[in-house]
Amino acid sequence: QVQLVESGGGLVQPGNSLRLSCAVSGRTFRSLTMAWFRQAPGKEREFVGGRSGSGSLTSYANSVKGRFTISRDSAGNMAFLQMNNLKPEDTAVYYCAADTAVIPSAEMSIDGRYHYWGRGTQVTVSS
Q1: Would you give the DSSP letter of residue 127?
Q2: Main-chain dihedrals φ then ψ at residue 64, nearest 5 degrees
Q3: Can you say how many angstroms the Cα of residue 25 is from the centroid of all Cα atoms in its chain?
Q4: Angle at Cα 69 formed by Cα 1 and Cα 59, nearest 5°?
Q5: Helix, strand or coil, per DSSP, at residue 29
Q6: In DSSP terms, which residues pair with 37 in a beta bridge?
Q7: Counting Cβ atoms within 10 Å, is residue 48 exposed (0-12), middle (13-18) or buried (19+)?
Q8: 78-to-33, 46, 93 alpha-carbon distances in Å
Q9: How many CA atoms lie within 13 A of 100 on its CB side?
Q10: What is the pLDDT along the chain (127 residues), one digit of tens a residue?
Protein backbone atom coordinates (compact mmCIF):
# COMPACT_ATOMS: atom_id res chain seq x y z
CA GLN A 1 0.00 0.00 0.00
CA VAL A 2 1.35 3.38 -0.99
CA GLN A 3 0.85 6.28 1.38
CA LEU A 4 1.51 9.92 0.56
CA VAL A 5 1.85 12.79 3.02
CA GLU A 6 2.24 16.40 1.90
CA SER A 7 3.90 19.16 3.89
CA GLY A 8 5.36 22.62 3.42
CA GLY A 9 2.27 24.68 2.78
CA GLY A 10 1.67 28.06 4.34
CA LEU A 11 1.10 31.76 3.79
CA VAL A 12 3.45 33.50 1.37
CA GLN A 13 3.51 36.91 -0.27
CA PRO A 14 3.10 37.30 -4.03
CA GLY A 15 6.38 36.95 -5.89
CA ASN A 16 7.92 34.73 -3.25
CA SER A 17 8.73 31.02 -3.36
CA LEU A 18 7.61 27.93 -1.50
CA ARG A 19 8.60 24.27 -1.68
CA LEU A 20 6.08 21.53 -0.99
CA SER A 21 7.15 18.04 -0.04
CA CYS A 22 5.45 14.69 -0.52
CA ALA A 23 6.68 11.77 1.53
CA VAL A 24 5.98 8.30 0.17
CA SER A 25 5.88 5.00 2.01
CA GLY A 26 5.28 1.55 0.61
CA ARG A 27 7.12 2.23 -2.63
CA THR A 28 9.74 4.69 -3.85
CA PHE A 29 9.09 7.42 -6.37
CA ARG A 30 11.51 5.68 -8.72
CA SER A 31 8.76 3.14 -9.40
CA LEU A 32 5.86 5.59 -9.44
CA THR A 33 4.44 8.21 -11.72
CA MET A 34 3.66 11.12 -9.46
CA ALA A 35 1.83 14.38 -9.87
CA TRP A 36 0.63 17.45 -8.06
CA PHE A 37 -2.93 18.71 -8.27
CA ARG A 38 -4.58 21.65 -6.57
CA GLN A 39 -8.06 22.75 -5.65
CA ALA A 40 -9.06 26.33 -4.92
CA PRO A 41 -12.25 27.18 -2.98
CA GLY A 42 -15.30 26.79 -5.16
CA LYS A 43 -13.30 25.35 -8.05
CA GLU A 44 -12.63 21.89 -9.40
CA ARG A 45 -9.38 20.13 -8.74
CA GLU A 46 -6.83 20.91 -11.43
CA PHE A 47 -3.56 19.44 -12.61
CA VAL A 48 -0.34 21.24 -11.71
CA GLY A 49 2.41 18.95 -12.96
CA GLY A 50 3.55 15.37 -13.23
CA ARG A 51 6.73 13.35 -13.47
CA SER A 52 7.56 9.76 -14.33
CA GLY A 53 9.63 7.65 -11.96
CA SER A 54 12.70 8.01 -14.14
CA GLY A 55 12.14 11.70 -14.68
CA SER A 56 12.23 11.26 -18.44
CA LEU A 57 8.57 12.25 -18.78
CA THR A 58 7.20 15.47 -17.35
CA SER A 59 4.14 17.61 -17.87
CA TYR A 60 3.09 20.96 -16.44
CA ALA A 61 -0.06 23.02 -16.62
CA ASN A 62 0.34 26.16 -18.74
CA SER A 63 -0.52 28.31 -15.74
CA VAL A 64 2.57 27.14 -13.83
CA LYS A 65 5.01 26.32 -16.62
CA GLY A 66 8.33 28.07 -16.02
CA ARG A 67 7.47 28.82 -12.39
CA PHE A 68 6.92 25.36 -10.83
CA THR A 69 9.26 22.37 -10.92
CA ILE A 70 8.77 18.79 -9.71
CA SER A 71 11.73 16.82 -8.41
CA ARG A 72 12.55 14.01 -6.02
CA ASP A 73 15.38 13.16 -3.66
CA SER A 74 18.06 10.61 -4.56
CA ALA A 75 16.56 7.94 -2.31
CA GLY A 76 13.18 8.25 -4.01
CA ASN A 77 11.30 8.70 -0.74
CA MET A 78 10.44 12.36 -1.17
CA ALA A 79 9.02 14.37 -4.02
CA PHE A 80 9.01 18.14 -4.17
CA LEU A 81 7.09 20.91 -5.85
CA GLN A 82 9.24 24.03 -6.07
CA MET A 83 6.97 27.03 -6.63
CA ASN A 84 8.53 30.34 -7.65
CA ASN A 85 7.03 33.74 -8.38
CA LEU A 86 3.82 32.77 -6.63
CA LYS A 87 0.61 34.58 -7.51
CA PRO A 88 -2.64 34.98 -5.58
CA GLU A 89 -4.33 32.67 -8.07
CA ASP A 90 -1.98 29.89 -6.93
CA THR A 91 -3.88 29.82 -3.62
CA ALA A 92 -5.29 26.31 -3.17
CA VAL A 93 -4.99 23.03 -1.37
CA TYR A 94 -2.20 21.11 -3.07
CA TYR A 95 -2.38 17.33 -3.38
CA CYS A 96 0.29 14.79 -4.18
CA ALA A 97 -0.85 11.84 -6.29
CA ALA A 98 0.92 8.71 -7.51
CA ASP A 99 0.39 5.51 -9.43
CA THR A 100 2.43 2.41 -10.17
CA ALA A 101 1.63 2.64 -13.89
CA VAL A 102 3.83 4.49 -16.34
CA ILE A 103 1.51 7.29 -17.40
CA PRO A 104 2.23 9.05 -20.69
CA SER A 105 2.86 12.76 -20.45
CA ALA A 106 -0.34 13.50 -22.34
CA GLU A 107 -2.38 11.65 -19.70
CA MET A 108 -0.67 12.90 -16.54
CA SER A 109 -3.34 15.59 -16.14
CA ILE A 110 -6.12 13.01 -15.75
CA ASP A 111 -6.76 12.63 -12.02
CA GLY A 112 -8.49 9.28 -12.53
CA ARG A 113 -5.14 7.78 -13.58
CA TYR A 114 -3.81 8.00 -10.03
CA HIS A 115 -4.70 5.45 -7.35
CA TYR A 116 -2.90 7.04 -4.44
CA TRP A 117 -3.52 10.48 -2.99
CA GLY A 118 -2.33 12.53 -0.06
CA ARG A 119 -4.63 14.63 2.11
CA GLY A 120 -3.31 17.93 0.87
CA THR A 121 -1.53 21.01 2.19
CA GLN A 122 -2.87 24.56 2.08
CA VAL A 123 -0.98 27.24 0.15
CA THR A 124 -2.15 30.83 0.50
CA VAL A 125 -0.58 33.60 -1.56
CA SER A 126 -1.54 36.98 -0.20
CA SER A 127 -0.03 40.29 0.77
Answers
A1: -
A2: -120, -5
A3: 16
A4: 75
A5: helix
A6: 47, 95
A7: buried
A8: 13, 22, 19
A9: 6
A10: 899 999 999 999 999 999 999 999 988 888 899 999 999 999 999 999 999 988 889 999 999 999 999 999 888 899 999 999 999 999 999 999 999 999 999 999 999 999 999 999 999 999 9
